Description:
Uridine Diphospho-n-acetylenolpyruvylglucosamine Reductase, domain 2, Uridine Diphospho-n-acetylenolpyruvylglucosamine Reductase, domain 3, Alpha-Beta Plaits, 4 domains, 7-stranded antiparallel sheet, 5-stranded antiparallel sheet, 15 helices, 20% strand, binds flavin-adenine dinucleotide
Amino acid sequence: MERGELLTSLKDIVGEENVLSSEMDLALYGYDASLERGKPDVVVLPGSTEDVSKVVKLAYRAKIPVIGRGSGTNLSGGTVPVKGGIVVHFSHMNRIIEIDIPNRTVTVEPGVITLDLQNTILKKGLQYAPDPASQKVSTLGGNFGENSGGPHCLKYGVTTNHVLGAEVVLFDGTVVWLGGKSPDQASYDITGLLVGSEGTLAIATKIMLKIIPTPEAVKTMLAIYDSIEDAGNTVSAIIAEGIVPATLEMMDNLVLKAVEDSVHAGYPMDAAAVLIIELDGMADGMERQAGKILEICKRHRVRDVRLAKSDAERAELWAGRKGAFGAVARLRPSYLVCDGTVPRTKLPEVLGKVIQIAKKYDLPIGNVFHAGDGNLHPLILFDERNKEELARVHKAATEILQICADVGGTISGEHGIGTEKLKEMSFIFSESDMHFMRDIKSAFDPVGIWNPGKVIPQRQAANA
Ligand SMILES: Cc1cc2nc3c(=O)[nH]c(=O)nc-3n(C[C@H](O)[C@H](O)[C@H](O)COP(=O)(O)OP(=O)(O)OC[C@H]3O[C@@H](n4cnc5c(N)ncnc54)[C@H](O)[C@@H]3O)c2cc1C
């Protein structure tokens, strides 16, 4: 289809003001929070499911790629239009459609900002548990696409555990509803398959989510360590004792210093690592559980455990953790976040190896991560303009993911594969595994319009 014809057809569907096609617009939609870059042919801002369905129908007929986009904060290249195409940006589809308190569900459009939903339902004594650190800007559609996690996902589960159903647009523009309010669904769990599929199988235009009452009591502690190993061992010991805190987050010295310089959260600048441990639930018994945690921390040579004495102090501790990525961005012009997951007991060993990699490649690497889930986020700091340094960064990132895979972990805890980790897929999947995934992809996407070039590496040539 000619570009002029494509633009005219899209303007007929969503209105002229909702089609962006200037060079500046296309450059702005050519990147996300990863290092990848691309360029779409056009960007559309649909206002309804009907708009999305018509756009997809057009793309299917013309065999043009379609890339769903929330806020573009994903860290793996998931929204970068590496093969051009139509970016469908959901910023106008940002309504909370229903809050069903008796059934404890909400139904939202994909462009709703995660924290906006949270703030709306908190007023009703309810919460949506997944809390990515990017929740101030990320959308629920993006969370759906990436199967996002967050500090509270240790206890409550990641996005997929909270998605009850979704209205989705299929490759030819057909609109279907999957799942729903009843807790058990007959037939295949297609909703489960779509959550985390990074827009490569279908696009969600409405999402039904589970919400839960806010906890009666919360206790937040900052445990301060002189050794990363002791902090890591505390994490597995707490879980091994049968305690599942709401959060178990770790930050190392490099990150602590950066956070303190920018957010002033009251963290000790000289500590090797800190853990933010939060308990939530019934007030009854919480004191006892906190006591047990203190005992475990002491067993692992904690220097000090500070208890947040007020909501303000608690908010301060969290402001530091949630502002950590932004804070380290002040140290060097660019950073790459690795997102590997390892069995918790392997945390100290793997963190030690990350330190060795930092030395080997002469790169500063900080760690701030969901320790309770074994989900590491080594942050490699560098200057993207220095190509030689960038090459070292890629090598270091690949080596870190190889280590995670080697100890029985995986190459993504929550940030997805996108384009950034295509080559690392072979660390955990065989060619037959990927062949099976390609078959699933072709069933959902027979002409290859959905977010091409993401998640599944291209088939190896037979004689390669
Ligand atoms: C500072 C910072 C902190 C972060 N912290 C966390 C964290 O704690 N936990 C975490 O999990 N992630 C984190 N992230 C990563 C990112 O914020 C999440 O992946 C988030 O879910 C992306 O939301 P988004 O709206 O920006 O989605 P986008 O980046 O726009 O899209 C993400 C993916 O979802 C697809 N998609 C978008 N909309 C739809 C739709 N309607 N239907 C189907 N697919 C769709 C896109 O095609 C893409 O593949 C962080 C990122 C940054 C920059």
